[in-house]
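Figure 6 in text form: structure in, sequence out.
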């Protein structure tokens, strides 16, 4: 059974172009053959018209020669003159054969017979025969005129038939060309839409991989090479999912293996500081303090690592629903009201209501981290500004503060996990360096993008999210 799926994209595309070219070529060749046929008919008609016109003119000339020789023969009774008449009559009869389709030829032949009869007879009837001959040649002149007119009318009729056929062929050719164009457009649209569907599925699958939607199987139907590419993408999806699972499993195992000896270490340091093993000297207490501090730092780093790993894992499991972004920002600001009011900060917000298909919980975490950073770096009495705007099909969120901003050397690495910039607030604990990394994970998981704009003095983060309305 014939199936288009057995052929490759290039083969089907070649078939489509060949079909379209065949249709247009057939219409063009038919038009060319029609034009050649009409040109042949026109040439043949012109040749016949010239021949018949020439024959009518020559017949008139032979008639004049016949009349002159006949009159002279009646008067002089010279056999040479009779021979001249007979020769002219024979030539006229031959010419008359070219005009056989003209109705007046029979009348011309009948009149010629009358003239020939008048050339024979006794001398006593000469006067009567002269009168009859004069009348016959007058009638022959009228017949020649009629023949010329009939030739002209026949030529015009033939030309009109040719024009009518030309018009009919032109209309027929126009309909055929229009039909060929319609069929060509239909074939082009049909093949285009049929071949575009698997390409659209490929684009959707690639976007899904880019947005970490690794839980959605990839099944591309269409030509053989497109289906092969779909199977490669499915293999890539499974491989990426396996690598992500291995990474998450490795982080969990490493974190678990580190937490057990770390807990024992912290307990031992606590026993030393409590003097359970004996009274410590000042140097020993300093060493125990340093050990306690570093175990606390290591504990926080392990917890941050687990938190970042959990955020990266959750970023691939978005639950999208239509969410009004300005309401979401107000809820986030209300949740951190105590923090920004404690530092006497002001929060402003501009923008009209805007709906986007997002995971409100994960987007809240991302925006909450940005607001927490802005609160942490803003000097007392400063202003933090939120704005919501819309581009075609995309929602834009801007968060700007009046803090020290991000050092130029840190801008390229600001979203890297566990990277802490140069400008740290003196009155706050040093951050872990994963807050902006989690923001980046959640925003990119939505298919959006976040960037740090260089229009300080403070930090200005610009977010774009798709599926806005």
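Output sequence:
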């Amino acid at each position: 059974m014939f199936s288009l799926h057995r052929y490759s994209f290039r083969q089907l595309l070649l078939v489509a172009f060949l079909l379209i070219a065949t249709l247009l070529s057939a219409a063009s060749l038919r038009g060319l053959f029609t034009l050649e046929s009409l040109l042949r008919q026109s040439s043949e008609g012109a040749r016949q018209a010239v021949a018949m016109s020439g024959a009518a003119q020559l017949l008139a000339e032979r008639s004049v020669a016949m009349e002159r020789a006949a009159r002279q023969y009646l008067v002089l009774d010279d056999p040479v003159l009779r021979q001249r008449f007979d020769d002219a009559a024979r030539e006229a009869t031959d010419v008359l054969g070219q005009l056989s389709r003209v109705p007046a030829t029979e009348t011309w032949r009948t009149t010629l017979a009358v003239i020939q009869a008048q050339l024979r007879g006794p001398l006593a009837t000469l006067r009567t025969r002269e009168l009859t001959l004069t009348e016959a040649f007058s009638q022959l002149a009228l017949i020649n005129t009629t023949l010329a007119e009939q030739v002209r009318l026949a030529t015009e009729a033939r030309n009109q038939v040719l024009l009518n056929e030309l018009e009919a062929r032109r209309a027929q050719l126009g309909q055929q060309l229009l039909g060929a164009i319609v069929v060509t457009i239909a074939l082009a649209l049909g093949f285009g839409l049929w071949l575009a569907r698997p390409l659209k599925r490929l684009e959707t699958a690639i976007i899904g991989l880019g947005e970490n939607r690794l839980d959605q199987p990839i099944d591309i139907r269409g030509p053989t090479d497109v289906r092969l590419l779909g199977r490669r993408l499915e293999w890539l999806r499974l491989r990426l999912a396996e690598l992500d699972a291995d990474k998450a499993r490795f982080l969990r195992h490493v974190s678990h293996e580190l937490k057990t000896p770390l807990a024992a270490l912290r307990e031992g340091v606590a026993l030393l500081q409590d003097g359970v093993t004996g009274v410590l000297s000042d140097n020993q207490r300093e060493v125990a303090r340093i050990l306690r501090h570093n175990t606390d730092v290591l504990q926080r780093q392990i917890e941050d690592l687990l938190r970042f790993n959990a955020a990266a894992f959750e970023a691939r499991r978005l639950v999208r629903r239509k969410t009004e972004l300005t309401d979401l920002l107000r809820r986030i600001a209300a949740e951190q009201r105590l923090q920004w009011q404690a530092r006497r900060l002001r929060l402003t917000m501009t923008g009209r209501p805007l709906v986007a298909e997002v995971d409100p919980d994960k987007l809240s975490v991302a925006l909450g981290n940005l607001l927490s950073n802005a609160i942490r770096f803003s000097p007392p009495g400063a202003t933090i500004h939120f704005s919501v705007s819309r581009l075609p099909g995309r929602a834009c969120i801007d968060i700007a503060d009046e803090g020290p901003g991000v050092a130029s050397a840190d801008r390229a690495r600001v979203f890297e996990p566990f990277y802490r910039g140069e400008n740290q607030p003196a009155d706050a604990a040093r951050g872990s360096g994963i807050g902006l990394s989690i923001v980046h994970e959640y925003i990119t998981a939505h298919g959006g993008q976040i960037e740090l704009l260089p229009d300080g003095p403070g930090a200005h983060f610009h977010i774009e999210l798709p599926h806005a309305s």
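Caption detail: Residues 126-210 form the longest helix (85 residues).
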